[in-house]
Specification:
By secondary structure, the protein is of the alpha+beta class. The chain is 23% helix and 33% strand.
Length: 171
Amino acid sequence: MAKRPIIQFGDPILRTVASPVPRITSKILQLLDDMADTLYAARNGVGLAAPQIGVLQRIIVVDVGQGLIELINPEIIEWHGQQAGLETCLSFPKFAGLVKRAKSIKVTSLNRKGEKIFFQAKGALARCIQHEIDHLNGVLFVDHVQEKELFHQRTHQKISLLDVIRLTKGQ
């Protein structure tokens, strides 16, 4: 078991598109285990993408209270409806913003055995998977925030979204 450091906003790796996993190896299995350990160690996280720990591969892990889900090379193949809600990110500690996402999605992926899986996700699980897949494409939740600012979850202090986006794009 190994907890890895989480990359924080401003690091250009978070804006880099991750590469597909060509085959499941012992290194990939270890990465999945490390990602789960890292997610659970964060205590307030519900999802983690490999780029958030510095690995540019298309792998995510999520747990919104229904148990750990591991997805390798995930793709959303259908979107339905719309939901709006507050999102946070382990790479943006303590800040939140209002984001619109699809209400339900259909996903295809590989599992840790290399088997192709299909499933539907709704509500919080759909939101989390969309957020994490965005990470694989170099897209951050701040790119979707509906208001002009993020706010600190504890103090409610606001920060200009334009300043955050400039920092995350290295401008």
